[in-house]
TrEMBL record:
Gene3D superfamilies: Ureohydrolase domain (3.40.800.10). PROSITE patterns: ARGINASE_1, ARGINASE_2. PANTHER family: ARGINASE/AGMATINASE (PTHR11358), GUANIDINO ACID HYDROLASE, MITOCHONDRIAL (PTHR11358:SF26). InterPro entries: Ureohydrolase, Ureohydrolase_dom_sf, Ureohydrolase_Mn_BS. This is Arginase.
Length: 307
């Protein structure tokens, strides 16, 4: 149970806003928990991410103060947890099926879990929206494009394993900075059409220009955009609770503002926030940060003209 910070009748709290039934006229955000970290590439613990994020989120009000956007009218639906079993293929199939079943009028939010869940989520969204073409914006320190090794699959492969369904020419990766790659990965991504921007490049160009470029890139002849946020895109000073902390990452307000701007500029078909690991966290700092990203996404959707 969540204890409210203050008893104030003017506030609508997230914890009090979960509903079982909605109407076609409602703005509905549905939350699917994916407590899966069998494919984590380094330190486990992200299976506890969904609960950690929701616990933090339940302590928020439905007013995004920073962006001056009220969410009092939205409805929140808890879709529960995906059935995670001791088999990667079966669990991924369960994720895809759960995503495909989400009602079309709802705005889906996916809480992980390690980043490998992005592959079955994206496949589920394609099944949920047959014949549609989606762009992809990824916030991540890592390319996640290594060829998988059978029996040793991990979360660093999903951008590669999606190659049969993804269109790299409408994909952007923002925040790439991890010092565990060769030039091959940068060159390969860009030759396939991926827009890659490192933190240094973003600082040099500025966020406004970067976002305009990224939104334009992923929106070309697409029917919507999927957002995937690996919490390790952020500097480890702000996001210590993750499998692979990043010592030279993005700043909290930069990613929150970027998620808000993207969510308001284009039709977002879904968002995931992954790699939050409460056992590795400090005073729930990373879970709190992830909850702020959720609030900014929702505020962007509501403030945007396409919602």
């Amino acid at each position: 149970m969540h204890t409210k910070v203050v008893d104030d009748p003017t506030i609508r709290w997230v914890a009090d806003s979960w509903v079982d039934q909605t109407t076609p006229d409602d703005t509905v955000f549905s939350f699917l928990r994916i407590p899966f970290d069998y494919a984590v590439s380094h330190r486990p613990g992200t299976r506890f991410g969904p609960e950690g994020i929701l616990t933090a989120f339940n302590g928020f009000s439905l007013y995004c103060t920073d962006k001056r956007v009220s969410l009092d009218h939205v409805r929140l639906v808890d879709l529960g947890r995906v059935d995670v079993v001791h088999s990667l293929p079966e669990t991924y199939a369960n994720i895809t099926e759960a995503v495909a079943r989400i009602p079309p009028e709802q705005h889906p939010v996916f809480l992980g879990g390690d980043h490998s869940i992005a592959d079955p989520i994206f496949r589920g969204l394609l099944r949920r929206n047959p014949g549609r073409r989606f762009g992809l914006i990824v916030f991540d320190a890592h390319f996640d494009a290594r060829p998988p090794i059978p029996g040793k699959e991990h979360s660093g492969h999903w951008m590669k394993t999606l190659e049969d369904v993804i269109d790299y020419s409408v994909t952007a990766q923002l925040g790439i900075s991890a010092p565990i790659y060769s030039e091959y990965y940068m060159r390969s991504a860009e030759e396939q059409g991926v827009l890659v921007r490192t933190p240094y490049e973003i600082r040099r160009r500025g966020w406004r220009e970067t976002l305009e470029e990224a939104i334009s890139h992923v929106s070309r002849d697409t029917d919507g955009v999927y957002i995937s946020v690996d919490i390790d895109c952020l500097d480890q000073a702000f996001a210590p609770g993750t499998s692979v902390p990043n010592g030279s990452g993005l700043l909290t307000h930069e990613v929150a503002d970027a998620v808000f701007e993207i969510s308001g500029a284009v039709p977002v078909v879904g968002i995931d926030i992954n790699e939050v690991s409460p056992p590795l966290d400090r005073l729930d700092q990373t879970s709190q940060l992830a909850a702020h990203l959720l609030l900014n996404h929702m505020a962007g959707v509501v403030a945007g003209k396409w919602a």
